[in-house]
TrEMBL record:
UniProt keyword annotations, A-Z: Coiled coil
PANTHER family: CILIA AND FLAGELLA-ASSOCIATED PROTEIN 58-RELATED (PTHR32083), CILIA- AND FLAGELLA-ASSOCIATED PROTEIN 58 (PTHR32083:SF31)
Entry keyword annotation includes Coiled coil: yes
Name of protein: Uncharacterized protein
Domain of life, per lineage: Eukaryota
């Protein structure tokens, strides 16, 4: 159950807030706007601010992709470790059953 929810969570990490093709279209639009603004002194301040905003958006997008990859990696690690914990719990329960059985056998022999 826990592992299933982790697998579902992993599916969420496969899609960035801005899809790759949408980001590429934004990049193209940005270049077109910059080309139009270049040389127009009356819009120089706007162009500079627009470039700053674009740089921040680009950095945010790259960070999101990096963090999503890290989330996928950590989620996979959690899935592996939760399987190991489940196995350890099952072995522990089996050991407890074996110990109880051996105690009963030992008590019967002493009687």
């Amino acid at each position: 159950m826990f592992v299933n929810s982790l697998v579902e969570d992993e599916e969420r990490y496969d899609k960035p807030a801005i899809e790759e093709n949408v980001f590429e279209a934004l990049e193209k639009d940005f270049q077109e706007v910059i080309n139009e603004l270049t040389g127009d002194q009356s819009l120089e301040k706007f162009r500079v601010e627009y470039e700053k905003l674009h740089a921040v958006l680009k950095k945010s997008y790259e960070n999101e992709k990096r963090l999503m990859a890290k989330c996928r990696e950590l989620n996979a690690e959690i899935v592996v470790n939760s399987a190991k914990v489940a196995t350890a719990l099952k072995l522990s329960q089996d050991d407890q059953t074996t110990i109880a059985s051996l105690k009963r056998v030992h008590c019967i022999k002493l009687s």
